[in-house]
Design brief:
mainly alpha; Arc Repressor Mutant, subunit A; two-stranded antiparallel sheet; 3 helices; 2 strands; 6% strand
């Protein structure tokens, strides 16, 4: 899969969105942080595939680990 999180100044003013949609990545994070399941998010945003959502979370996790600092 290509990059699951994309930013384009022509779409949502450059807000990072899930690829192929106008759904901000932050919305996925807000759902999960609020205690909703991935299935609930996908039900509310049918334009997002499970593959894209999982890949975006993996990408974010990889970036967090890569940018972690030793305490």
């Amino acid at each position: 899969m290509s990059t699951p999180i994309v930013s384009n100044s022509e779409i949502m003013g450059g807000t990072p969105c899930l690829a192929g949609t106008r759904v901000p990545f932050q919305t996925l994070l807000d759902y999960l942080e609020g205690g909703d399941s991935l299935d609930e998010f996908l039900e509310d945003f049918p334009s997002v595939s499970r593959e894209t959502a999982v890949a975006a979370l993996q990408q974010a996790g990889d970036l967090a680990i890569a940018n972690a600092r030793v305490a």
